[in-house]
Amino acid sequence: MRRLTVEIERFPIAGTFTISRGSRTEAVVVTATISEDGTVGRGECVPYARYGETVEGVRDLIAAQAEPIAWGCTRTELLTRMKAGAARNALDCALWDFEAKRTRTPVAEIAEIAAPKPVTTCYTISLGDPETMEGAARAAADRPILKVKLGGAGDTARIAAVRRGAPAAVLVVDANEAWDASTIRDNLAACRDAGVKLIEQPLPAGKDDLLADIDRVIPICADESMHDRKSLADVARRYDAINIKLDKTGGLTEALLVARDARAMGLDIMVGCMLGTSLAMAPAMYLTPGAAFVDLDGPLLLARDREPGLLFEGSTVHPPQGALWG
Fold first, then answer.
1. Of the chain's two ends, which shows fewer C-beta atoms within 10 Å, N or C?
2. CATH code at 135?
């Protein structure tokens, strides 16, 4: 009989991670482990207050599934047993890992998808004053792609400062819902002048109708507005791309279906993450073939990652080895 255990873990961040909604100095994750007869599968999630999640609440949601897991609950059954979100993500990914290890079959083969290859990930520049962000960009100027966190007032100066600090880097901007109707056009113009290639979630989810009517001079990517397949039809009218995060879709099972349907609708894909360890990034690597952008730099922002973790060579992230996941 399968046994489910749940653990809250904390990993220090290297410095401070700041976005428009606040700052953090540690990543708090919830890990689900499924074991039976020496086979162990793990999944990690990052509860997110923006979506009404708490660490303890997510832990309890996972623990409540102990009996169904014990009696062989499948990933497909999990889609109807639990809502999309962090708790289902941890369990779904643990089930993928468990099956791969029990059958000694790679996840890509089980899922009948292309195996991931090394890819270039974005590297995040935290929100700060223009001078601080210019310095951070200069320190990371050798990285091919920088993801710049913006926060509302003063963003035109921030993006110009980052471009000065990293004149050759590809820039992606993440406003985390901080712009509004009075600022979006000026900010879009500043991003255009800086050569930004993609803008994530400039307006608040639910208040983004304007995006259907303005001249999107730069492709705009849905993040907070995009969760699972039910979001796609609405998002496709206002956005050019979607950010798929396993903690939003509720695991790899739903994420693979989201990616399939999004491509059929002509949407580009960014593969993103919350701030977690290599265990959270590993299953997301299976979404990267064909993605326009990959943003799986969570472990690079930590002072300490799991052992073993993903292999990073600069901004190149390699697929996970079986000892980590899958």
1. N
2. 3.20.20.120
φ/ψ region of 226 (left if φ > 0, alpha if ψ in -120 to 50, else beta) reads: beta
Tell me the two tokens of residue 152: 């509302």
Amino acid at 174: D
Q: Count CB atoms within 10 A of the CB of residue 204.
A: 15
Q: How far is CA 127 from the centre of its chain?
A: 18
Start-end of H helices in 27-177:
55-63, 66-70, 75-81, 86-103, 107-111, 130-139, 155-165
What are the catalytic residues?
149, 245
pLDDT for the residue numbered 124: 97
With respect to residue 189, please indicate whether it lies within any of the assigned structural domains. Answer: yes
324 belongs to a structural domain: no
Split the chain (326 residues) into runs of 10 and give each run's mean pLDDT: 97 83 86 98 96 97 98 96 98 98 98 97 97 98 98 96 98 97 95 98 96 93 96 95 98 98 98 97 97 97 97 98 96
Q: Are 305 and 73 in contact (CB under 8 A)?
A: no
**pLDDT at position 19, please?**
76
Query: What is the pLDDT, as a whole number, of residue 24?
Result: 80
pLDDT of residue 25: 87
Residue 273 tokens, joined = 């993450």
**Which segments within the chain are labelled E, that is strand?**
3-19, 22-36, 39-45, 119-120, 123-125, 145-149, 170-174, 198-200, 220-222, 241-244, 268-271, 293-294, 312-313, 316-317
Phi, then psi, of 249 in degrees rounded to 5: -75, -20
Q: Is the dihedral of CA 137, 140, 144, 145 positive or negative?
A: negative
Q: What is the DSSP letter of 71?
A: T
127 lies in the same domain as 256: yes
